[in-house]
Structures are given as structure tokens and as C-alpha cells.
Amino acid sequence: MTEFPRSFDRDDLLKCARGELFGPGNAQLPEPPMLMMDRITDISGDGGAHGKGHVVAEFDITPDLWFFDCHFPGNPIMPGCLGLDGLWQLTGFNLGWRGWQGRGYALGVGEVKLTGMVRPDRKMLTYYVDFTKAIQTRRLTMGVADGRVEADGDVIYQVKDMKVALSES
């Protein structure tokens, strides 16, 4: 596996966004405000529900987050697509953490269930990504994972068969 640690604070995530963590041309997280987590609390290449790798991360919710003002005025709700993007971000981060080369991009998701909302009174989102496949061949580097997002311990989003690939082009 890699020489990277198993947890990362916000400064580490910002280094990743600048291309300083895994090196130029490799997996990067977006910068704020699109960075959808504040810390990664655990990551592996062989843990999780299927023994193929996992990521656990947290995102602090505050009423002044950028999306609450515009989605929707008078009825602030975090867009569900941002929670999905956070899961994709973490899936790609895990591939870079494994030492695999290339820039990350989302390929899709098989199933999405949104069963709750993130309003400004929530305190924290917890992301869980469990890999079902991690593939690296001469032609393909890809992770396939299931994920869920909890808001203050309540499951609000669940996904199956989310796919992220790395490409050196």
C-alpha cells in the first residue's frame, strides 16, 4: 500500500486540492467551496464492508455555508447532488491514496436514494465509502463503491455502484 497516513485534516485536504499531496497530474480534491469535507478520519485499501477499501470523512455544517443562501431562499437545504459529489470526491481520493496515478473523474452511479435533508440546524455530515471493486490494469484504473451520508447520525443519502476512474490523459 502507500506511505500516506490513515487520516487527514483540512490542511491536508487543501494540499490535495492544490495538487501537492499525490503530485501534479494525480488525484485532486476541489478547492472550497466545492470541497465537501473537512477531514478524513479513516481510509484503507483493504477495509470496509467488502474488504476492498473504505473512507470515512466528516463535514461540519454551519448556517453560513454558501449553498444555504441560494438553495432555497426562505427554505435553506443543502443540494443532494453536493452530498453525492462528496462521496465521489472521497472515492477518487482513495484511489490517489493507494498511490495510483492519474486525474480523477466520476463515471456515474447505479442507484441514489435521498431520504433526508441537510438544513442549517444540522451539525455534521459523516460520509462512508465502501469499495466493492478497485481495479488497476494497464488500461484502466477505477474504483466502484457503495456509500452513505449521515447527518447527525441519521442516514440521509445512500448510493450503490458509484464509479470513479483515474486517467493520465
TrEMBL record:
Question: Cellular component terms, GO, for this chain's entry?
Answer: cytoplasm
Please name the GO terms of the biological process aspect recorded for this protein, alphabetically.
Answer: fatty acid biosynthetic process
Which superkingdom heads the taxonomic lineage of this protein's source?
A: Bacteria
Q: Which GO terms describe its molecular function?
A: (3R)-hydroxyacyl-[acyl-carrier-protein] dehydratase activity; isomerase activity
Q: Which reaction does it catalyse?
A: a (3R)-hydroxyacyl-[ACP] = a (2E)-enoyl-[ACP] + H2O
Q: In which pathway does it act?
A: Lipid metabolism; fatty acid biosynthesis
Entries under Pfam families matching the protein: FabA (PF07977)
Q: What class of enzyme is it?
A: lyase
Q: Where in the cell is it found?
A: Cytoplasm
Q: What is its EC number?
A: 4.2.1.59
Annotated keywords? Cytoplasm, Fatty acid biosynthesis, Fatty acid metabolism, Isomerase, Lipid biosynthesis, Lipid metabolism, Lyase
The family assignment reads:
Belongs to the thioester dehydratase family. FabA subfamily.
Q: How does it assemble?
A: Homodimer.
Q: Which protein, by its recorded name, is this? A: 3-hydroxyacyl-[acyl-carrier-protein] dehydratase FabA
Q: Which organism is it from?
A: Marivita cryptomonadis
What gene does this protein come from? fabA
